[in-house]
Amino acid sequence: MRAPYVFDPQNPHIVPDLLLPALSAHGVKKEEVLALLCVDLDDDCLFKDCYLVATKERLLYIAGVTRLCREDKKTLQVFVPCKQTEWQMKDLSEMKMEDLVSSCRLTAVCQNERFVLCNFSLSFKEDVRIFRGYLEEIAKTGSFTPLSGEKAKKKELYCPKCGLRYADAENKVCPRCQKQSKTVCRTAKLLSGYKWKLILIGLTLILSGALSVVAPYFSAGFFYDEVLDAAGAFYGKILLVIGIIVTTRLLSQLVSSIHSALTSVIAADMVYDLRKIIFSSINRLSLSFFTSRKTGGLMTQVNSDAQTIYWFFCDLIPSFTVNMVQVVAAILIMFLLSPPLCLAAILFIPPSIVAIRAIFKKMDVLHSRRFGRSRSLSSALSDMLGGVRVVKAFSGEQKEQKRFNKKNEELARADLNTNLYGAKAFPGVELLLRLGNSLVWAVGGVMILLHLTNPALVGERQVLTYGLLATFLSYVSMIYSPLFGFVDMISQAADSIKAMSRLFEIMDARPDVVERSDPLRLEEVKGGLRFENTGFCYLPGQTVLEKISFEVEAGKTVGIVGKTGAGKSTLAHLILRLYDPTEGDIYLDGVNLKDLSFEDLRKNVAIVSQDTYLFAGTILENVRYARPDATLMEVFEACVASGAHEFIMKLKDGYETRIGQGNADLSGGERQRLSIARAILKDPKILILDEATAAMDTRTEMIIQRSLTALSRGRTTLIIAHRLSTLRDADELIVIDGKTVAERGTPAELIRQKGIYYTLYKMQTEALKTIGIAED
Amino acid sequence: MNSVFEIAGVTPLTVENTRIALEGDFPVLYQKSENGEERVGVFKTQRAFPFEKEEEFLVLLSEEGKELGFIRKLSDRTDEEIAILQKDLARRYFMPRIKKIHKVKEQFAFSYWKVDTESGPLEFSVRDTYKSLIHLGARIIVTDADGNRYDIPDYHTLDKASRKQIDLYLW
User: Fold this and answer.
1) pLDDT tens digit string along A505-523?
2) Mean predicted lDDT score pLDDT of chain A
3) Domain ranges in chain B?
4) B24 and A115 in contact by Cβ < 8 A?
5) For chain A, which terminal residue's Cβ has fewer other Cβ atoms within 10 angstroms, N or C?
6) pLDDT confidence of residue A305
């Protein structure tokens, strides 16, 4: 049933007609309603229609059910209220949305006690969030201004045409309503460079198809009736006819050789191009795209989708056309040769197609189960192998063996079921087709016998010769064999089109963080940073940072302190524009980051984070990633400064030791030192150290910090750290707590303030003391 | 045992040291001491083992999310308190229980479910169905595309037609 009322942020006061009786029972007139909301759960967590109606004086809660009712031959929706509550608007304050495990509730304080206003499932969060804002304004001032413009736009999650959910609400492409032919055409346009080669492929296929249609005529009917028969026009000229047969065979072989040569040339090029297109589309997207998706999925996308799309254009379409033409031509020829026999031949085609479709459908289910189980097995396997240290340490081999056996058994069973079904079902259909073949034999045989015994019965034109029957039988097999292929092609075509729409989904996805079309270029960056009322949330409603305002003078070192999960790293990511703040702005040397070119920004800001990533390659290559043109001296210097030099020289191949997948394994501290070296080599104006020295001992950390200071040359440095000793040389400290800047000042000032920093400081020094005492 | 909790500041809450009462629609914690009671404030209850033990290891959090302590066993509290906490937990952990599955249709990236729950009939969509089902033995938790969860307490007790609809996702 259609929802009786949908909240519209711009017109929240419009009352649906079905609610009017319930409202007037409470003495509320339609015009008095300021804002109206409908949610889905009542007090007892039953799905009902629950309305919150706000007027200037009151807030009304009416829960009930909407029923369909026939009146005057029209179906009406009637609202039957079953529970009502009422609050005085002026009593309400502190409206809050509370997230529960699988639902939410809106609560408010009324005369010093907190009450639940309404309950709702997570699907209504967006509505309630907006309504809550309105309600708060009404309670305070008696009226409110509805949101307008971008902010008032509700996210459309479902396709309005067919009701399917969009895969990506930002990029509204309905997988069903989007015309599949359009997707194919768009892909074809991408591949327009291959037009001539594809046409050539088509031509060779058509030629070989035509030859295969002609061949049976010479090798069967013509041979019996014209060559072996005394009355035939070519009686006795066996050599000539054999010659013709051999020539057609040769020709068709030649054509198919050309075809496969062409395809293999195209295949490599086209898959290469498609992969390039997909990868570059992925590469330009913002970080949030990658964090919201599984990287594994993206990897298969680059690899297999390219293959699938290629295959669609180079194999599926051409062979489908050719097979189709062949079947139609064969049926046509058969019909011209003998209509009754033709009828006998095609009689079994429709039931076979129905049967094959049914089989493939069931096979699909079996295959996807098999696929699911094999995926489950391989993920369990990579889990076990990845955790081999833990398995050994806790002697869990037996347990893992059992786990593996179970998965293995499940997969084997699914395998068996799939194969067994295939083994049972396909011969059945084949039998059906054999029956068709036999029917042709039978009808043909009867016709020939009739002609022999009673020539008068059959008209002269209907004469069926042995040769004709033989020709016929070869055509029958020609129309039967592609049947399986046709049905299979349908599902494979669907897969290819899915791959294509995935491609466009990525190509059309708009990166969240976009560079301005005419970005500002900075001649020289000094490194001054300013946050102005900056706020950020990863998901609406889940604020990570709010109202962050502070300024860092160019060349200063600032420490950022805060609890785990306080949003310190997020702050760093905002400076790099991996994400854009959802509120407020950030300025670099007085220029809004959003106006600045990506190149200038990222050239001047470097981050060393806690989890460092090293690419497969040598240490030298990894450090040089920051600046590929750096000299060896510069790399050497950077590594000495970062303290990496020490461990690098213990490796046999020194700076040219291969690291990454399958090669030397570096420890956490070693990796961090390499990534610091990377940052030093980049020589940025702003350096962000996000727990960059956390995995090192204090002495190493101190050495690195000294070298960093020595190399800084007026660099702005932001240090995020838990260990306060890391921050001892900072010019200023910023304490993040409760999503915002709680304290700021020099370390000495903050200790005197006796606030959050002081507590932290005291705790850590006391911890050190304990160790000191223990050492004594 | 207790000493670990003392060090970490995770306090066991017993009838001796605390009292729970209702204020409006919300439970409130009172700290008992020799010189009487002190109102700690409104709290949220969180199960430490939400699937395994529904009435044990209940952690109480303040409105700001600060941990106030934990109740080892619900049955250790007074009857009145048990009733308050049970009601609060039932609401907090509410998941519609699926009793019949009319149709599960996989289309493109989502599966579309049409079900009857103990709270009423429902339609919802699930993204990436295989990964959105949590299997807990015979119990299945379904998470839909909006993050709502639905509970199938024991799929063996579903009728045959319902089971057939989700057969594909079960292993």
Assistant:
1) 777 777 778 888 888 888 8
2) 83
3) 4-92, 98-170
4) yes
5) C
6) 83
More confident residue, A327 or A235: A327
pTM: 0.70
β-sheet with B120-127: strand ranges across: B98-107, B110-117, B120-127
DSSP structure string for A434-495: HHHHHHHHHHHHHHHHHHHH-TTTS-GGG---HHHHHHHHHHHHHHHTHHHHHHHHHHHHHH
Residue B107 touches chain A, beta carbons under 8 Å: yes
Chain B, nearest residue to A410 by Cα:
B171
Residue in B closest to A107 by C-alpha: B25
The C-alpha atoms of residue B153 and residue B97 are separated, in whole angstroms, by 7
Both structure tokens of A756: 């959050």
Is A164 in Cβ contact with B107 (below 8 Å)?
yes
Question: Among B25, B91, B110, whose Cβ lies nearest the Cβ of A114?
Answer: B25
* Cα(A312)–Cα(A188) distance, integer angstroms: 10
Cβ(A79)–Cβ(A21) below 8 Å: yes
CB A760 within 8 A of CB A768: no
Cα angle, residue A476 at apex, residues A474 and A482 outer, rounded to 5°: 105
Kindly compute the dihedral angle of the four CA atoms of residues B42, B43, B44, B45, in this order, to the nearest 10 degrees. -140
What span, in angstroms and rounded, lies between the C-alpha atoms of B144 and A3? 19
- Label residue A428 exposed, middle or buried (CB < 10 Å: 0-12, 13-18, 19+): exposed
Mean pLDDT of chain B: 88
Lookup result for tokens 């039953």: A46
Q: Report the amino acid identity of residue A72.
A: D
Distance in Å from the first CA to the final CA of chain A: 77
